[in-house]
Amino acid sequence: MDEFSVSSREEDGQEFLKCARSEKLPTSDHLRRSVLSGSISELSQIVHNLGIKDKKVLLDHLAKVADQDNDKFLSKIKSRLDRVGMELPTIEIRYEHLNVEAEATVGSKSLPTFTNFTLGIFMGRMTLLLGPPSSGKTTLLLALAGRLDPNLKVSGRVTYNGHDMHEFIPQKTSAYVSQHDVHMGELTVRETLAFAARVQGVGSLQDMLEELSRREEAASIIPDPDIDDFMKASATEGLASIVVTDYVLKILGLEGCADTLVGNEMIRGISGGQKKRVTTGEILVGPVRAMFMDEISTGLDSSTTFQIVNSLKHQNHILNRTTIISLLQPAPETYDLFDDIILLSDGQIAYQGPCENVLEFFEHMGFKCPDRKGVADYLQEVTSKKDQKQYWARRDHAYRFITTKEFAEAFKSFHIGRKIGDELSIPYDRSKSHPTALATKKYGIGNKELLKANFAREFLLMKRNSFVYIFKLTQILIMALLTMTVFFRTRMHRNTIQDGWIFMGALFFTLITIMFKGMSEIPMTIAKLPVFYKQRNMFFYPPWIYSIPPWILKIPITFLEVGIWVSLTYYDVGFDPNFGRLIRFYVLLVAINQMASALFRFIAATGRNMIVANTFGSFVLLSIFALGGFILSPDYIKKWWKWAYWVSPMMYGQNAIVINEFLAHSWSHVTSLLLLQ
């Protein structure tokens, strides 16, 4: 049976919607009503409370077999919009005389490299970016996405719907999918995509659905309940695991490993090809209208690449998205899915236009593709100095090597090149740009929701790394037991200056023990930095929101660690028995531990890799210890190093716990100890 035919469920849904409209429910109530019938769910329920089984039933109705039903599903969404005369936002991307220049130092000379992209225009089509390695594919994609390194010299112009890059937020309007797969290894595939969907928000889907509902009500149109359910669920902001995540898992073929850890060098997880699909899925769950995808086929077999590109093609053609995909050696069946092609070589565009005209252009230049030769392979070889000669077809003319620059110049006079030039000569009419096509907000959801999402992810990561915290608690327990035997109270007296120095040693040992508990922050922070930089550059969240959850959530662990240390060592060593001073001692150690954790996180963020962080961290720690006032007395620190004594956080922590101890009543009879203050 066709899953998209009108069923009894659809008829029941239509009756429900008719009743709802007859009661004149507000539009916001319509958007939170779902039609799910059968043994699993009642007729109507709140979309916010959709369970796992309900979502599975809904997705099975929409696209039970992803390869076969996805096209029908997207067509139904488009048909629903067309019936009421609504248009989806589209983006036309133009670049004119785009030139990117960088300087690479080789030996004692500077080698200037130029990447010259002359003219181009894209809108609502899927374009293949083809070229050999180091031809400039990544540079072009980054330039179009507005994410080039600011140190590069860029000239020319890139516009979205006639708007320059500074007039909107390109990072939220378009998405650059890197060829590097960077993910949190401790999260599952589903959790990774759900987090990406949550922080990117729903864009303008909520507003679009409200307008759609109003127009359908005015025209007395009853929507397909399955499509209505999906659109309502995907437009409901704040869901931890929204339906669109499960939909993307299905179309990318990740359902079988959805609850498997992504994995990393230390954790066994999914395969490299599956990680590549997760990287693509992080973007598909968001509301962007333009995608620039860099070498997404790395690690994938040809059939999987075909499946992913085919899904993207359906979304482009039906939902009017703009996508440029860079592939190194696409299979013939994958190549046939694309509408347009950009052929890059030596940093210049040899051809840009419809795929069906590319062979015509090179035949015009004197080169012919053999019948059994793949078009993609032929195009990469015909611009190569080593392979070009074999395709020369003009036997009555002597062959000579034709450079990419000559191809680029000839393309301008080719009818496709002239057509592109004519289109670019007419400025884009800004009045035709959909109000929601270009993003003007930096982040997809509010700061409060971003904090909630980051707190939830950080708590989950802490649970997955629970062994680290259990080991730290065990470690401090063992160290406390050793301290109890070394500084035993029966041998700790308060009669002479020498007794005071022994207590100073015990306090100093306590200080460095608590401080070094924060060293585990270095490897844990460095491991997450690549994901942070990627998501920060994609405007998933601001840096300050990312940094707050690790600090807040680890405070209870600090309380527990310091509590174990103080409860075992304070009275056993023989510190002042006053309860108030014990509480102050405990609070001071908590503050010292928090200071140390922040310091080590700063070292990790500054170093960015373990070698640099350990080298830089060792220098910082030695400086702090040497100039903290215990190992080297302040009186012996040279004047030009005095500033280091005052900026050393260890000095303040040490002085605080020393004052807390030696100003106690139990030391009042030793007047000579006042010299230590």
TrEMBL record:
Family assignment from sequence similarity: Belongs to the ABC transporter superfamily. ABCG family. PDR (TC 3.A.1.205) subfamily.
Record key words, sorted: ATP-binding, Membrane, Nucleotide-binding, Repeat, Transmembrane, Transmembrane helix, Transport
InterPro entries according to UniProt: AAA+_ATPase, ABC2_TM, ABC_transporter-like_ATP-bd, ABCG_dom, P-loop_NTPase
Name of this protein: ABC transporter domain-containing protein
Stretches that traverse the bilayer: 467-488, 500-519, 551-571, 583-604, 610-632
UniProt-annotated location(s): Membrane
UniProt keyword Transport, yes or no: yes
Annotated GO MF terms: ABC-type transporter activity; ATP binding; ATP hydrolysis activity
GO cellular component: membrane
Mode of membrane association: Multi-pass membrane protein
Domain of life where this protein originates: Eukaryota
Gene3D superfamilies membership: P-loop containing nucleotide triphosphate hydrolases
Keyword Transmembrane helix: yes
Domain ABC transporter: 93-371
